[in-house]
Sequence to fold (92 residues):
Amino acid sequence: MKRVNWLDEKGVLRCSLLRDTDSETNPRLGIPIEPPPIDTILEDAKSEIRTALIEAGLFTWDDVQRQQNSLELIVKRTVHRKLVMAYRQGVK
Fold:
């Protein structure tokens, strides 16, 4: 089996799994393989990120400058954890 990346009609990068003997000219006929649904993960993370920002006291640009790494850590920690969970659960 081989993986073939291709762009759909909207310009979104997709990936399909094809047999080794299949032509790569029509990858849409293969089995689609995709990462977890990013939109769902980000939607789910929004309220958690908002709560963490409030708890960290990040309301203004000055707050962010005073706490140099807090913003990045909050977003990274929340989104990373949710992505890892989605991969572990095999969410499609």
Notes: The mean pLDDT is 93. The first helix runs from residue 38 to 56. Helices lie at 38-56, 61-66, 70-89.
